[in-house]
Amino acid sequence: MAHVTTNQVADYYNTHQTIYNLFWSRSGLHYGFWEENTKNLKEAISNTDKFVTDVLSINSNDVVLDAGCGVGGSSLYVAGNTGAKVEGITLSSVQLKIAQRKASESNSRNLVNFSIQDFTNTRFKENTFSKVFGIECICYANDKKEFLNEAYRIIKVGGKIAVVDAFLLKENLNAEESRIYTKFIDGWRVPNLATKDEFQNYLEQSGFKNIVFYDKLSNIKKSSKKLYYLGLLSYPLDFIKSKLGIGQENFSTFYQKQLFEKIATYGVFVAEKLD
Q: Is residue 69 one of the residues assigned to a domain?
């Protein structure tokens, strides 16, 4: 299990955010949920935000934490569509500036606030939030239990959490599966993926109840394929750079398709804090 520091994660997004803006999306870095009538990636990303908003029943009375908010797209979606107050936290100074600029241009500017914080060790007081969510970011916690313990601390009794992410389907990987997994996590600076069963156990250990998992693997397949083809285009250059020792190799876009075909699923855990 690799240990990835918060500085390494911040450096990755500080140096790669422009690439994501150019080749993926300016509103969010996640896969997005493709539904039957989804026309494009922007709508797919919005569908994820809508799913989280609906499954958490977010309304104007809520105070919400977007843990790992990236460029702020999900925070602004939630605030704009529900009237809830939203705190978004990220490790990246580049992402923070983009999120703050987006907020300043939004009608929801008075409902959102962004800051640089580590979601495993925040500056928030106990029982601050009624809802907490993390979209494709909790994988960056070296120890997922640290995030869930912190989330439990800052969620009010009766509050809910949603975690959207990739999860391994088994613990023991063979040599080929380990190669795919390692290539996937190394490029995106992810320390590890929890198995689906592990993450459910972590939620229980942290005190969460009424745990539900929504399998959304089929809804991200189109985005996974798009990323794969982007990976094909960049693979030769990345391969040469890796051989020359220029920077850290990044074949995640290429290997993520195999990861989801062979050893991982993708979905949403939802749980409640009842006491």
A: yes
